[in-house]
Amino acid sequence: MPSDDLLLYFQRDLALVGHWWLNGTHYAKTCEAWLAKLDSNARAAREVTAAVYGAAQATRWFVNWRLFYIACAELFAYGGGDQWAVSHYLFEKPTYAMIASRASDGGGAASAAAAAAAPAPMGGGGAGAGVGAAASRGGGGGGGVRGGAARRHPV
Asked: Is residue 77 within 8 Å of 28, Cβ to Cβ?
């Protein structure tokens, strides 16, 4: 599982505009709903796993999918949802000025300062590519947002 800040280190071809961290409780509920849907459609799901993995492996893969949903639900609910979370990122194509700034300082302080000064829109909007990813907060389940609320990280 990537860390929450992993994509912040890779901004050569895309520039980060906004970054939102969402408590894991919502994704835990999503996994539980997917598990219930899988269980309520077990016959059809086993037919799909037989078609994809072969008849001899159908039960094994049905169980694997159940375990995946159960494990994800438990992980994302752990610690009130503050240990495992979903991160959203809004990127845009870098402008010529951004690229020139990075080249002039080797991608160091000036580009970091420019990134820190960039406004981070709430709720998306504008031109950019939004990305969502599950992320670990690292450490021992530190504080943060509870109940699925979003926390906006300045860029």
From this structure: yes
